[in-house]
Amino acid sequence: MTRELIDQIEGEASIFFDMKEEKVDFATIAFPHFRGMESILEGKPAMDALVITPRVCGICGHAHLMASARALEAAYADANEAVTLTPKAEAIRELTLILEMIQNHFKWIYLVIMPELARLTGSEAPLTPLKGAFAASLATKALAGFAGQWPHSSYMLPGGVTCDITHLERIKAEGHIDELISFFEKESLGTTLDEFLTFESCRDFNAYDSDISRIESGLIQANMHQIGFASDQFIVLGDHAFTHPAKVLKTRQYPVHEKHVSTVASYSPSQKSYARNAQYKGKYFETGPFSRAMSTNVPLIKNMHRRFKDSAYSRVMARVFETGILLERAKEMVGSLTLSDDSLIVPRDIRKISGKGVGIVEAPRGPLIHRVEMREGIIMDYEIITPTQWNIGSSIKEDPTPAQLAMMGKNTSKQEALFIFRTFDVCSVCTTH
Amino acid sequence: MRSESSKQKLRLIWLQGVTCNGNTHSFLNLSYLPQLLSRYEIVYHPSLPSSSTQDKIYTLKEACDVFVFEGAYDPLMRRCDVLLSDLLEHYGTQADFIISAGSCASFGGMFKASAPERNSGLIFDGTEQIGPLRPIYEKVINLSGCPIHPEWLGYTLSMIADGHKIQTDELHRPLELYSDLAHHGCTRNEYFEWKVDSKQFGVKEGCLYYAQGCRGPMTHASCNHILWNEVSSKTRSGSPCFGCTEPDFPRRDLFVTKTNMSIPADVPLGISKRAYLTMAGVAKTFKIKRLEGRLIDD
Question: pTM score, two decimals?
Answer without folding.
Answer: 0.97
